[in-house]
UniProtKB/TrEMBL annotation:
The keyword rRNA-binding does not apply. GO terms for molecular function: potassium ion transmembrane transporter activity. It comes from the Bacteria. Residues 1-123, 229-352 form the RCK N-terminal domain. Keywords: Ion transport, NAD, Potassium, Potassium transport, Transport. Residues 141-223, 367-447 form the RCK C-terminal domain. InterPro entries: K_uptake_TrkA, NAD(P)-bd_dom_sf, RCK_C, RCK_C_sf, RCK_N, Trk_Ktr_HKT_K-transport. This is Trk system potassium uptake protein TrkA. PROSITE patterns: RCK_C, RCK_N. The keyword Ribonucleoprotein does not apply. GO terms for cellular component: plasma membrane.
Length: 447
């Protein structure tokens, strides 16, 4: 598959890393030679120091044969223009990163299609949805609902109160048990577990279950004493915070700390929902946090553009008794450090956006792809076709690649957990977890 990426900034760089590990034919275009040099040294890809809106550049990059053209420079208008040119020159599918929510309104989609833009991606909106999802349960680091909650993935940090530590998973996750452990992050290592693996203290563990059994999972991991989130404090009043407010449930009371006075005035004008208070102040000011009731909050969300400030603010909030902390961290190295500091949920816009784009390079039977930032693993939803390899034998006899497991499936709207004896049927929505496995290799089981 030939993929051309315009923009070697945060999203483009991360996407290039993801795709290069799958041995794709990648061309990366950027006007900044330093950006290209960093990636060229570590990854197998062709780089071009040029403008992505140059017809000559696009032709030399081979855009006429491109299966996917991705424009993710910081300039949304340049991205849209580059996609239009790429489409006109023969690119099969184009994706443009944008920063204006108006562009994504449904009645505007046809306009962009006519301009040659197949899809628009708005990282702040995607991040906002992840933040809102994470706030719904204070005891969960990460949550992902599949088919409106028919299946639910929960990422949970295991503490001393966990009931299922140090026991082989084959004793815990049998055919009749209402959950499966599908991935474990232990220190720097990611484990796609087998029956002999055990859960250990401080593991970040990913469970697959159904909505009805979420209370059961909460009980066995010892999180019943965690208070549900009703009061939230947000540090930083930028675009991500505004979009998060639109997605956060109405029953939550929210305080936003923003140090720029003019921005505070704008926030007061544009925020329409009730139960939101905008406070002019620095969220790193401990005395201000105490005065504004930080000790009574169940969640603290740090969304400034400064990763270090977000991490430190979350650490301070945890020391003052806040159970749930969320930090926006754009530097992947800092994301690993934040996990080591036991920051709760890490939001990385480039990883979220890259995962969204990633699924566009896969076949049509792959409907969702999510990159688990802290675990360096992928979750994907596959729909097998009639006669595909995965439908011919029980799961235990399929010979799945090492580093891959099937967590569950949705059949006729009902979520079902998968055991070794499960026979997958054509048309099922199958949730696959993988670490260091070429997604194309997995696709062969479902095609």
């Amino acid at each position: 598959m030939k993929i051309i990426i315009a923009g070697a900034y945060t999203i483009g760089s991360h996407l290039a890393k993801l795709l290069s590990r799958n041995n794709q034919d990648i061309v990366l275009i950027d006007e900044n030679e330093d950006n290209l040099a960093r990636l060229r040294a570590d990854f197998d890809l062709l780089t071009m120091h040029a403008s992505p809106t140059s017809l000559k550049t696009l032709k030399e990059a081979g855009v006429a044969a491109a299966d996917l053209f991705i424009a993710v420079t910081p300039d949304e208008y340049k991205n849209i223009t580059a996609c239009g040119l790429a489409h006109a020159l023969g690119a099969k599918k184009t994706v443009a990163r944008i920063d204006d929510s108006e562009f994504q309104q449904q009645d505007n989609e046809e306009i962009f299609h006519k301009m040659g833009v197949s899809s628009l991606i708005y990282p702040e909106m995607l991040a906002a949805k992840d933040i809102a999802n994470g706030l719904k349960m204070s005891w969960v680091r990460q949550r992902w609902d599949v088919h409106d909650g028919a299946l639910v993935m929960l990422g949970i940090k295991l503490r001393e109160t966990c009931e299922v530590l140090n026991r082989p998973l084959k004793e815990l996750c049998g055919p009749d048990d209402p959950y499966h452990v599908v991935a474990i992050k232990r220190g720097p290592d990611t484990i796609i577990p087998g029956g002999n693996d055990v859960l250990k203290l401080y593991d970040l563990t990913y469970f697959m279950t159904t909505r009805n059994y979420i209370p059961h999972v909460r009980k066995i991991v010892g999180k019943e004493h965690y208070a549900d989130v009703k009061d939230v404090m947000i540090m930083g009043g930028g675009g991500t915070a505004v979009h998060a407010l639109q997605a956060i449930p109405d029953y939550m009371d929210v305080k936003i700390m923003e140090k720029d006075e003019a921005r505070c005035e704008l926030l007061n004008d544009i925020i329409t929902r009730d139960k939101v208070m905008v406070i002019n102040g620095d969220g790193r000011d401990i005395s201000l946090l105490v005065d504004e009731g930080i000790r009574n909050m169940q969640a603290f969300v740090a969304l400034t553009g400064n990763a270090e400030a977000n991490i430190l603010a979350c650490l301070s909030a945890k020391r003052m008794g806040v159970r749930k902390t969320v930090a926006m961290v754009e530097n992947m190295d800092y994301a690993e450090m934040a996990e080591g500091f036991d920051i709760g949920t890490i939001i990385n816009k480039k990883a979220i956006a890259a995962g969204y784009i990633y699924q566009m390079m896969l076949d049509a039977n792959v409907h969702n792809v999510k990159f688990l930032t802290t675990a360096n693993a992928d979750v994907a939803e596959f729909i097998p076709v009639e006669g595909s390899r995965v439908t011919k034998k029980p799961v235990k006899d399929l010979g799945l690649p090492k580093g891959m497991t099937i967590g569950g499936l949705v059949r006729n709207g009902e979520g079902l957990l998968v055991s070794g004896n499960t026979l997958i049927e054509a048309g099922d929505s199958v949730m696959v977890f993988c670490h260091s496995v070429d997604m194309k290799k997995i696709e062969k089981f479902f095609n």
